[in-house]
Amino acid sequence: MTASEGLVELDVTGYANGGAGIARRGGRVIFVDGALPGETVQAQITDDSHVAYAKAIAATIVVPSDRRVAPGCPAAAAGAGCCNLSAVDPAYARELGATALADVLRRIGGFSGDAPTAPAVEALAEQSTGWRIRTRLAVGRDGRAGLRGRRSSTIVTEPCAAPVAGLLDDVDALGARPGTELVLMAGADGTRHAGELEAARVARGGGRRRSAQRSRGARSGLRAVRNLAGDDLVTHRVGARSWEVPVTGFWQAHRNAPETYVDAAVTMLAEVGVTGSVHAWDLYGGAGVFAASLLDRGAAHGFTVTSVDLVDTDPGALAAAEVTLADDPVRIHRGAVAATVAGLDRPQIVVSDPPRSGSGLAVVDAITAADPTAVVHVGCDAASFARDLGRFAANGYRVRAWRAFDAFPMTHHIEAIAVLTR
Ligand SMILES: C[S@@+](CC[C@H](N)C(=O)[O-])C[C@H]1O[C@@H](n2cnc3c(N)ncnc32)[C@H](O)[C@@H]1O
């Protein structure tokens, strides 16, 4: 290893959850953004403040991996923070995702030989481009819309390759005003819907970390939406059901995700022996896609869902659920899961599909205290998924089956689903 002009030469030997390559130098682990296992890179150290590890960015690939491919996403190639694995062979990216998942299941979840073998990551579509049905773009002072830079607040106007065909066509002609965000969503029939989200009001001061947190909080808070194209409500379909979801509301990003996940959940519940009449909880249920499929598909798999408690915080998603599930035995609860579950009827089945931060230990404890026969736990962040599963295991629930999906192709993110029983 040599150091020149602030760069260090590193041999990358592993891959970490989060998409960085792993190298070692002077007894420390170095997480190298943009590097793959087997590569030698010249890297710039970006964070040297920790005793056990440092962070770096690959500046030059000296010896490339033979699994590198031509970058598939123009926006990422121009520095946008979207498709961080767009220059990696998609099959190899899935292998790396499975390796990272297995690693966090062991290290964070504490899983070893008594759990099923960690799952492979399955593709949701043949292509790794053209899968994303919703996206948010920042609108710059010049009125041009684009993705934020990976390590900067610059706006990259080259197109991302992830959105479905047509979603990003001529976005600047939609008329979103400078400083706002442009929200785009494709409906089940392919129609594009667009809204302008008013600029987030972010309080100032308190250091870089605090202000980044404030900025995220402000962006996710309630903000006015001005319709720019299509409708305020977007029609999505799963099986024979349809939902009318606000253009800013939650819907799975990959066009094939909802059908795949509900099919996986119902099939795995049957495989672990759920039978008879059951009451279910659909926690972090959004518009009630899992609730509907449990009701509609259980009978074909040997169990009958007689009623569901659906819990979510998002008023738009719950309004969609109220319409779609109006004639079904579903009680809708608006509120945080942690504050709501204690008052619900005892379930035999629980589906829990939290945001990236996971359910957290208190919610896992509340679920296991209700003593369900089976839990379907879904995670879009491998580390929080592993942590939550570890808590289920500590509370006496065993993973009986799990699957993982390449739900965000060309990125390091994966989605995983586990079914547990006591
Ligand atoms: C990954 S989404 C899953 C939605 C739904 N299961 C689906 O597949 O469409 C996570 C959901 O959790 C909701 N949410 C986030 N934090 C929550 C909390 N503390 N309590 C209840 N719901 C929450 C969000 O509004 C969002 O709908």
Automatic annotation (TrEMBL):
The UniProt keywords, alphabetically, are: Methyltransferase, S-adenosyl-L-methionine, Transferase
Task: Give yes or no: UniProt keyword Nuclease.
Answer: no
Official protein name in the record = TRAM domain-containing protein
Has keyword Ribosomal protein? no
UniProt xrefs under Gene3D superfamilies = Nucleic acid-binding proteins, Vaccinia Virus protein VP39
Q: Where is the active site?
A: C380
Give the domain of life.
Bacteria
- Family the UniProt entry places it in: Belongs to the class I-like SAM-binding methyltransferase superfamily. RNA M5U methyltransferase family.
So where does S-adenosyl-L-methionine get bound?
Q252, Y284, D312, D353
SUPFAM superfamilies, alphabetized: Nucleic acid-binding proteins, S-adenosyl-L-methionine-dependent methyltransferases
Limits of the TRAM domain: 1-58
